[in-house]
Amino acid sequence: MTAMDPGVPTYGGLSPDTGKAPAKIAGMFDAIAGRYDLLNHLLSGGQDLYWRWRAVRRLRLTGTERVLDLCTGTCDVARTMVRRRLARRVLGIDFSAEMLKVGQRKLRGEGRAGVIPLVRGDAMRLPAASGSMDAVTIAFGIRNVQDASVALAEVARVLKPGGRLAILEFSTPQQPAVRAAYLWYFRNVLPRLGGLVSRHGEAYAYLPASVESFTPPAQFVAQLEAAGLTQCEAVPLTFGVVYLYVARRAA
Predict the structure, then answer these.
(1) Phi/psi at 169 (nearest 5 deg)?
(2) Contact yes or no for 131/161 (Cβ under 8 A)
(3) CA-to-CA distance for 190 and 186, rounded, in angstroms?
(4) Per-residue pLDDT at 3 exceeds 60
(5) 3-class DSSP assignment, residue 248
(6) Using CA atoms, how far apart are residues 66 and 68, in angstroms rounded to an integer?
(7) Are the beta carbons of 159 and 247 closer than 8 angstroms?
(8) Mean pLDDT for all residues in the chain
């Protein structure tokens, strides 16, 4: 099939490469880092704030924990945990240097750089000791990892026994009317608007395409279990537009 074949979806008229080579993905996020937060809020209708808070709340943090925020991006999840005094220290890891720079500017402005250290690193080779984290969060980043199963095994490695994991990721709704509206928005409005604001049309064509090609919820739960995690759940949010995946490392 070709991109012009009616059986192949396009995104704002583009047929993006959904390959997950780390250098390609890091470069793409580097290019859109300056407008990333604005577009997150705009394209989600502000729902991204609600989704992140739901994920943090499911960790049941007490304020004493050490947390890893993997694929931290511009640090919104990490900042939420520290601002609400739900974690003692949060380590933010991402492989996009420019996203981390944006996050670092936020932290310096808030005086929180000391409690949220940022490290450029690969989700498949985490720069953290085994059993060193009470909890791990990943917000809208796992689908961009070249091999999610390797990353999940790394997450299980760095979690303490009994430690909790919360992952947010986009999905495709299954209810027919919602699915039809969502796909129309994802394939037509989001890539064009995102490309216009960010001036990087390829990135905002890749993002919705990567969602449609990502592992379905039931299969992703199986991946969590295969990584050695327990009590795995997939919780649909906003009509199944987003799923919150929660799990624990066995005590």
Answers:
(1) -155, 145
(2) yes
(3) 5
(4) no
(5) strand
(6) 7
(7) no
(8) 94
Report the alpha-carbon angle 20-23-29, nearest 5: 80
| Known binding-site residue numbers for S-adenosyl-L-methionine | 74, 94, 122-123
Dig out the tokens for 200 from the structure. 């990087």
pLDDT by residue (tens digit) across 109-133? 999 999 999 999 999 999 999 999 9
Q: Which domains does the chain have, with CATH numbers?
A: 22-169+215-249 (3.40.50.150)
Q: Which residues contact 211 (CB under 8 A, 6 or more apart)?
A: 143, 170, 171, 172, 186
Provide the annotated binding site.
74, 94, 122-123
pTM here is 0.94
In this structure, what DSSP letter does residue 57 have? H
Quick check: 65 and 88 in contact, CB under 8 A? yes
d(Cα 181, Cα 52) in Å, to the nearest integer?
Answer: 23
